[in-house]
């Protein structure tokens, strides 16, 4: 009751503003949104993309991933520049463990909704938690379809993150097919404004071998281009048995807007992770600890081990040991 009374002046303001805006449409767009957001709980009001902030964070805090930095920044800014996109944005992150895939997905959440993963419009799925039993595929398909449609109806700007796609039962993700293309209609919503992020280690062999070839040829890893990886990645992912992508129509129908390869990390990247970890603990001065941690995680003596097999994932545990 109290809330309703408080809202009356806002509603009156809104009506006056609508009348005024019929005369002066250009000037009042911003005011309209402010007042509309006071009286409504639309997710458009929570959606506050900060593209520059995202670009800066990717540039500064994501080490050794020039492809991910460029593809994600460009993909998001192109997508959000369209008032009415013709299809949703579908990003598929691939790469070894600990290379920054989850880190980038949390940056997306932070710079699009300003609330890290806490927003009600950001939905994260983890197969081991949500789809643990392959024999229940039929039920999971119904649930997932129902759930996506419900969330899109509530919020066209929903963000859906599917982590650990390599553990998802094959055949499940194809229920998303209608929502990822340009043709479908979801009642009461523009479903094409949604963003989907798939995360997996599937295809890591392809990425790692291209990075290794580059290294053996004595060339800079920044020379690796997306074109070097897209085709082999597409094939490896489509044929990856016992994963969520196996023979998926999402791949065969080309519904993924961009593949985002995460390269394996080298010793100096791991060292930067260790330095950051130490600074976060107020031990910025322990430079030798960062050096020791990076050597322990990523010994350079052996050709096979020139990349870290666990990326930066073990850094906090190793810092505990060496500090
Ligand atoms: N490329 C990177 N740059 C900076 N930090 C990284 C990078 N890769 C991993 N990390 C750090 O290592 C930890 C694990 O990374 P995460 O993003 O969860 O890896 P995954 O690729 O397995 O999802 C996080 O604390 C993250 O901040
Ligand atoms: Mg992860």
From TrEMBL:
Main location: endoplasmic reticulum
Identification of the protein by name: Torsin family 2 member A
Subcellular location: Endoplasmic reticulum lumen
InterPro entries: P-loop_NTPase, Torsin
Lineage, uppermost ranks: Eukaryota, Metazoa, Chordata, Craniata, Vertebrata
GO CC term (a single one): nuclear envelope
Family: Belongs to the ClpA/ClpB family. Torsin subfamily.
GO molecular function, one term: ATP hydrolysis activity
Alphabetical keyword list: ATP-binding, Endoplasmic reticulum, Glycoprotein, Nucleotide-binding, Signal
Top-level taxonomic group: Eukaryota
SUPFAM superfamilies linked: P-loop containing nucleoside triphosphate hydrolases (SSF52540)
KW RNA-binding (keyword) present: no
Keyword Glycoprotein: yes
Signal sequence interval, chain numbering: 1-25
